[in-house]
Amino acid sequence: MYAQMVKTARSGVKPRDEMTEQERAFQDRVDANEKIEPKDWMPDDYRRTLIRQIGQHAHSEVVGQLPEGNWITRAPTLERKAILLAKVQDEAGHGLYLYSAAETLGVSRDELIELLHQGKMKYSSIFNYPTLTWADVGAIGWLVDGAAIMNQVHLQRTSYGPYARAMVRICKEESFHQRQGYDIMMKMAFGTPEQKAMAQDALNRFWYPSLMMFGPPDQDSVHTAQSMAWKIKVATNDELRQKFVDQTVPQIEYLGLTCPDPDIRLNEETGHFDFTPPDWSEFFAVLKGNGPCNKDRMKARITAWEDGAWVREGMLAHARKKAAATAAAE
Amino acid sequence: MAVDRDTLFDWLLRLGDNTLVLSHRVSEWCGHAPVLEEDIALANTALDLIGQTQMWLNLAGEVEGKGRDADALAYLRDAWDFRNLLLVERPNGDFGHTMMRQFLFDAWQNVLLARLKESTDQRVADIAEKALKEAAYHLERSRGTVIALGDGTGESHARMQSALDALWDYVGEMFLDDDVDRAIADAGVGPLPSTLRGEWDGIVNAALNEATLARPDSDFAQTGGKTGRHTEDLGYILAEMQFLQRAYPGATW
Predict the structure, then answer these.
(1) pTM surpassing 0.90?
(2) CA distance B78 to B246
(3) How is domain B5-247 classified at the CATH fold level?
(4) Any A CB within 8 A of B236 CB
């Protein structure tokens, strides 16, 4: 889930009898599973919430290049390097589709980037954790992309057309990434004792941060109800987290690794795994900016943007000169 | 006249090491480019170059006949066994510097690969044919960027001129003939590097002209890469690139 803690622009679901006629007609379309398109009328709060959510998702893709990019120059084989490069390139591509989807709501890519750099918009907390060994590249593909897919599969049915369509394409690529990540984990878990130790260490460090990706528990998630009524959000945080745990525990067992949660066990009654929730105080600290890499990640992005200013200006100046020359020739 | 195995191996390493080291440099940009579109384009270039590396170095290993594949050659040789041009190991510098280095290389690689398509060694001709399609696109892009930024603003112009001036010392090595090149040319496997200069000059001069950049008035050339005498930079590239293979010998990844 690359968008977490997205503040819905209002709290609580607006009751039907308080809606204007236009709002009622809008809600009827959403309820009938019709897609809302850019030129359609939509409530201001719907638009604002979507901009926050899609923007946060786009930023996550872009910042998400950094932890994995950290290992590109140290990838252990040419094939692994090519796969990782292609993967990180896909993330940049996802960033592009998502910024484009956000632009259909009337906000430019540059404006969104500016808000990110000012700390006024967030990206997923997961990317504030460091990648310390090659196994982390596998763990990110397996767990982080796995968690992202859990959420994004639902978002293919989200009410806003451009967002839903971007998700269809993104989901295809993400499931490919997840398989590649698991493939790295298999090589490591079934490799030398040192490789297996690396794989276990990566799982230990990424397990709880992956669970945090779904956002705070439903009881503390005040924005869920209206977003669900608008079908911007299609499943709750806790539902998705449970689904992720149920899917992942057998995969851990297959790898011969140990889940870092000592209390994890299959509950015969519910058919689901019971698990220890992550330390939510850590989650909120990371969101506030106090994760291991928050400052480094933002510094890297801001530096790239500022150092690139002369390039963007130079390209623009050349394009203008060319356009002027073409106009003069006509 | 047939070329002996050691000479062919050495010459193939030159081709594969150029793309290997340049792909490494380009991939260092990942996540740090001036705009998202450039992040994607740079990754694309690096990816193509890795693919070409695999083809050249696998063929080199096959020719050598000692059971080494592209990975063994990339990850388990020390700097003195690398045969790449010094140009490709030069640090990235700013984005303009990276794109200028790319342009100078792309122009050369296009001229070279077009000639290698006619190689008497069918394996070489096949790789060249495949690689040329990618190289043509790389050149179109790096040429366009050099022109746009050379012509763009005062600042972008100054940065591109300074990149060109700094890299110019590394141009001459691309056109230097040595005994390996002469044996390869005699066998019809590849062209003499000096014969590529005219066409390269044509491509580069036209682009620099459009970019309003001044071609440096110097024919001094730093050399040594083709025979394994490198700049200080290559050691650091290899330390990073080879870390896992060196720290965990024999592991599969």
Answers:
(1) yes
(2) 11
(3) Ferritin (1.20.1260)
(4) no
